Amino acid sequence: MLKASRRNFFAHKGRLALSLIAVVLSVAFVTGTLMFTSTITKTFDRLFATTASDVAVTPKTDKDALPGSPEQTVPAAVLDAVKTLPGVQAAYGDISTERLAVVGADNKAISNATGGPTIASNWYVTPHPAVNLTSGQPPAGAGDVVVDADTAAKKHLAIGSRLRIVTDTQAGSFPVTVSGIATFRTTNPGASLFFFDTETAQTKLLGKPGVFTGVNLDAKPGTADDTLKGEVAAKLGAGYDVKTRAQQEADGRNSVGFIGFMKYVMLGFAGISLLVGAFLIINTFQMLVAQRTRELGLLRALGASRGQINRSVRFEALLLGVIGATLGIASGAGLAYGLIALMNNVGLNLDTSDMEITVPAVGAGYAVGVLVTLLAAWIPARRAGRITPMAALRDAGTPGDRRASRIRNLIGLLVLAGGAAALVGGAAAGANGGGAALLGLGVLISLVGAILLGPLLAGVVIRVLGAWLPAVFGSIGTMAQRNALRNPRRTGATAAALMIGLSLVSGMAVVGSSLVTSATSEMDKTVGADYILTANGGLEITQEALAKARATPGLEHVTENRFLNATVSGGTGDGKMAFSASSPTMVQDFNVRTTAGSLNDVFTKGGIALPEAEAKSRHMVVGSVATVDFHGGTKPVQLPVLAILRDDTVFNHGDGYVSLDTLGKTVPADRLPAVDLVFAKADKGQQDQAYQALKSSMEPFPQITVKSQTDYKKLIHDQVSSVLNMVYGLLGLAIVVAILGVVNTLALSVVERTREIGLTRAIGMSRRKTRRMIRLESVVIALFGATLGVGLGLAWGVTAQKVLSGVGISTLAIPVGTIVAVFVGAAVVGLLAALMPAFRASRMNVLRAIAADG
Amino acid sequence: MTTAAQAAVTHRTVGTAARAQAVSKLYGRDETAVTALDRVDVDIERGRFTAIMGPSGSGKSTLMHCLAGLDSVSSGQIWIYGRDGQASELTAMKDKELTNLRRDRIGFIFQSFNLLPTLNALENITLPMDIAGRKPNKAWLDRVIGTVGLEPRLKHRPSELSGGQQQRVAVARALAGQPEIIFGDEPTGNLDSRSGAEVLGFLRRSVDELGQTFVMVTHDPSAAAYADRVLFLADGRIVDDMSAPNADKVLDRMRQFDAHGHVDRGDAAQR
Prior knowledge:
The complex is a heterodimer of chains A (854) and B (271).
Chain A: H1 2-11, H2 13-51, E1 55-59, E2 74-75, H3 76-83, E3 88-94, E4 96-97, E5 101-103, E6 118-122, E7 131-136, E8 144-148, H4 149-155, E9 162-166, E10 173-184, E11 192-196, H5 198-206, E12 211-212, E13 214-219, H6 225-236, E14 240-244, H7 245-255, H8 257-291, H9 293-301, H10 306-345, H11 359-385, H12 406-429, H13 435-465, H14 468-473, H15 475-486, H16 488-526, E15 531-535, H17 543-550, E16 555-570, E17 573-582, H18 586-589, E18 594-597, H19 599-606, E19 608-611, H20 612-617, E20 625-630, E21 637-645, E22 656-659, H21 660-664, E23 675-682, H22 687-697, E24 704-708, H23 709-752, H24 754-762, H25 767-804, H26 816-842, H27 846-851
Parallel strand pairs in A: 6-11, 8-10, 17-22, 19-21
Antiparallel strand pairs in A: 1-13, 1-14, 2-12, 3-13, 4-6, 5-9, 7-10, 8-11, 9-10, 15-23, 15-24, 16-17, 16-20, 16-23, 18-21, 19-22, 20-21
Helix pairs in contact in A: 1-10, 2-7, 2-8, 2-10, 2-11, 2-23, 8-11, 8-16, 8-23, 10-11, 12-13, 12-25, 13-16, 13-25, 15-25, 16-23, 16-25, 23-25, 23-26, 25-26
Chain B: H1 3-9, E1 16-27, E2 34-45, E3 49-53, H2 60-67, E4 75-81, E5 87-89, H3 95-105, E6 106-109, H4 121-132, H5 138-148, H6 163-176, E7 181-185, H7 193-210, E8 213-217, H8 221-224, E9 229-234, E10 237-243, H9 247-255, H10 265-270
Parallel strand pairs in B: 3-8, 3-9, 6-7, 7-8
Antiparallel strand pairs in B: 1-2, 1-4, 4-5, 9-10
């Protein structure tokens, strides 16, 4: 029997080729993702290994600090205190900060396209440096800087290049000259490094003499890191974090958690394409079994048992899985290599020689490829086993209208109804009532329901969709439509494969466009400010910049906003929440909608505003008195609640408000969080002039971006679009696999209908019309898939919008353009998929076709 | 070459529906080549029922396929003549012209699998005209359908029809387009004798009453008996041409082929 199935496998290799491609693509995506992310992880691990010291002392981690609160430091006294400990071989005061912008000759910040950080450090010599000075001199004074070789190469910097360093300390900005170039000992994945002499780093970058951001210790030979850690901790007390090398490396790994996230996202998409591939495999095996009904019947008549037939089909699947997985793993390595090259092009620095074909990646590739193929072939194998010996005697003919079973339809209807109920329930529950979980459940269940109902829906939808076909294309149209309807199960499965990708595309498109529309309309309704200033690169909007902005002609007012955490207690609950501390003109710039009280009072009378959810959880109403412990404040203060804010907002969602004056009374100036958002409003009729003036007065501060409302809307739109495009790109794989499925179905249909096609050719159908008939059938199947996909996607998208309407996505926007594009795209996909099958059908030898067996 | 065949070539073209001249068909190449047709000359008379007979491998099906423009010839020429006597040379046509010729001027009835399973009986009958984008002649269509007795079955799919009914649909399809010639490849080969007789009766009537030209390949002497003329093929040549046949005469003639399907030369020379 095994010999028979092996022969069969290779006899039908052409027909299995497309299934094979589907397995290869999916496995390649899985293994490629694993190899790619493990290469990145390895690069970072090696980097952290070289930058970690035996023991590091850093300021106690402040969990409440939001980005923008002042940099934490350790005084030089700590260095002196630990230097003399018995286990210490050497101690170094270390400075490492990202609070700077490095500006080139063109007055543009030197930063990476990948958003890799710009890190400034102090230059000191250790026996195990992370970088080696490869040319020039170490930094010797306030005017010197050493830059890493990768950045130098990318930004065309050489010894003698002039740069400007922008800080948010009193030092403001200062000019430097590149004195040397340093090269990493391992691959630097993408940070730009600048080294200053210690004093410059302290006074100018940190703004305080005699402080470090940490102390690095080398242990004496024979002293374990843990022992040294114990010594240091005993000496310094509880005020500092003391970490061993292993702990520092673990911290580093946590800080690049996005790699793990990226891995799971990519694997998720690989999973989707695998699912789609499974449909292709099911269809292929079902068709192969149907075609071989007579042959299998003969085997049964000759005494092969059900189990043997069953096993022989499964063995073919196993062969397909193993071959597909092997090729897929090889392609996966190629894919990972390509991704690394791509990353190098966009600025992330990875070394292809770090890539290795790991055991987990290969294991996952085989597991996924073989398991999915075997599972997909399960049903066709069972069906093959059920073929009776009588089948050998019957005229095989074409498999007729095998009606989709009633039971399947009934189950499908029930499941789809269940999915719809979950979606409706989710929409009704909203984000705070567990709507998201119901949405997820509804998406899953309705997808399964749609797949089960595919054959039934094929009958209904294609009859409707295809109604115009006979009218436009005459009998060709009639035949194409009926051919598509002929085997509803097969058409359903083929279209379902396409549906999966397209439903996700349209669902995401609905959410994306609703988000953009909601944000834009909320901006129109709530944002009164004409300009929005933000700071990038870990820097704040300095007092110097703020003063310049205030002095800009044509501006009516400038509003500063600082963000910080606070513990708010009182009523019956407490807990941390975020606050926006702003100038009183905030109320003119930003129309925060309230459910009770007035935001204006918060600024005039000195109290706080709480978002509804936070107020509810603390059982607070307007007039309640809250005990507020602002981060960095000297002591908790009693403040009245003067306004309750609506929760359904996109901007500053979940933030409370307090005036800067009120905050200033409890938080000393040097502990205030950074100003990282500034609103400005132009005098009436001065919008354009003021915009230009503000832009030019911000010119010396390359870290600050000035955006008008229009710019800001465009930014939101662009950000959403780029996320959507990325998702579409990743879904592209699933769609490609689905197209292969359509090709496969058509190709096998053409083979099955050899005699029919021969007959129509004999009675005068031209080659052109034969091709057109196949193309139309293909387009009908593809459009059916698109209809299902868009239908599901719209249902999901609308539900998602309803679920999220409570948190700001209040307006539903149906992206008509995208949906039209999906349909047009599906039609094109149909045409493309039909290319080869149509060509083959039209080239058939008429006489041989008529004489063909079955 | 018999005198009868030579006589046929001299017929006036107005009475001729199709003509083959020195047609040869070889399969394979060089030493392994098999000669299916060996310089065949034949005229098919208009408005008559011609049967082509011969043992298996005699080339009878090949001859019909070549005459119908389904198969290409290795050498020689084939013409189809319009009702106005206009000659069209099949052997000079490209696929597209041949396709149109088959669609507009020729009808087919195959032994089995004549109908598209997705179309109902009426749609199958009008298919060639639908493909051509022509409106069927309603009166003619009704008459054809009436002749083959299919009115109650027009909306049925082929799977809902008996074998005899399916062949009658195929006959109706062939007649509906008023082609110049209808070719049948053992059209009753798959039918029991009663259904076969029924179908042949229709064909005979279409020749007598509608003036249709009909050429049929068969190996069944009683089917050949419905024809006006029977051509006998052996080894790729026409070896006899019998007018006004009956089943006994045909059976007698067929017995003259030896066990291997070859012509008994001595007997042929006597004639």
